[in-house]
Design a protein that fits this description.
The protein is an alpha+beta fold. The protein is 34% helix and 26% strand. It is built from eleven helices and 14 strands. Strands 4-5-10-6-7 form a five-stranded antiparallel sheet. Strand 8 and strand 9 form a beta hairpin. Bound molecules: flavin-adenine dinucleotide.
Length: 291
Amino acid sequence: MIPGSFEYHTPSSISDAVALLQQYGEEAKILSGGHSLVPMMKLRIAEPEHIVDINGIAGLDYIKEEGGVLKIGALVRESDLEHSDLIASKFPIIADAAKLIADPLVRNRATVAGNLAHGDPANDHPAVMLALGAEVVLTGGSGERVVPISEFFVDLLETALKPDEILTEVRIPMPPANSGGAYFKIERRVGDFAIIAVAAQVTLDASGNCASAGIGLTNSGPTPIKVTAAEAYLAGKALDDATLSEAGNLAEAASDPTSDTRAPAEYKKAMVKQMTIRALRRAAERAKGGN
Ligand SMILES: Cc1cc2nc3c(=O)[nH]c(=O)nc-3n(C[C@H](O)[C@H](O)[C@H](O)COP(=O)(O)OP(=O)(O)OC[C@H]3O[C@@H](n4cnc5c(N)ncnc54)[C@H](O)[C@@H]3O)c2cc1C
């Protein structure tokens, strides 16, 4: 299929890009990696009249630690995450997810910001960011606002982004000592979207119990899901088999998947439980220094 016709804009600054979004409103779409937008345009699901390509804006491709926060710029690609020592050493949960997204060709272009901004519950980064307690910086005509990721996903393919806003940065608190995370994804074949997937991040206290936990679910409902009941349940507990199993039950209860060509809903729910247990177990191993 061939996309409809559109006007193509190449701003060289965020303010120029915002001005274009203000001018064209709902008729404009940001283009980052293009690996979700272009397929949707080819299927005519999206028919923007104006494409605002932000790839020419310098200085948006950073991954850095600043004031106890990891900052990921809007033009950081999946492949940048894969090759970052900072991500590998401090955020194995992000490295797990990035490696499982599509194939190297897609990962060379697709951005983390685009993955979140698209608002697709089947994308892998939303659940990871929910587990990590991330925030996103949205820059628009009224300036910058910082939105907790737990408030960012509104509905299927709908986020808190206003028509004149760009997701310019992802912020994640640096994990304290004795923290670890993991992402477990079930897919039909390598590089496919998840049947379901689970992100888990834990911090252990001095006696090895769970001080805090973050859990996010991929493709388990109309939006990415933060499993707050399991997070609260795990606080202060030893991560033994019975506790992990109960956390899995709570994640399964929070999930609301539909049956589709990938799998029936019952199977998906059962797998949410099992992948929650596995992700938590791996996260705890990593928190103790293992891999
Ligand atoms: C074959 C294939 C397999 C894939 N498999 C997976 C997978 O397994 N897991 C997975 O998570 N993803 C997968 N994807 C999706 C891929 O990761 C996308 O590229 C990603 O979801 C969107 O990022 P992007 O940079 O390409 O965004 P784009 O396609 O450029 O944009 C997507 C949407 O977000 C908006 N947008 C983009 N950037 C911004 C921004 N900075 N601020 C505001 N709005 C913005 C756009 O206007 C558009 O509406 C796959 C894609 C392909 C083609």
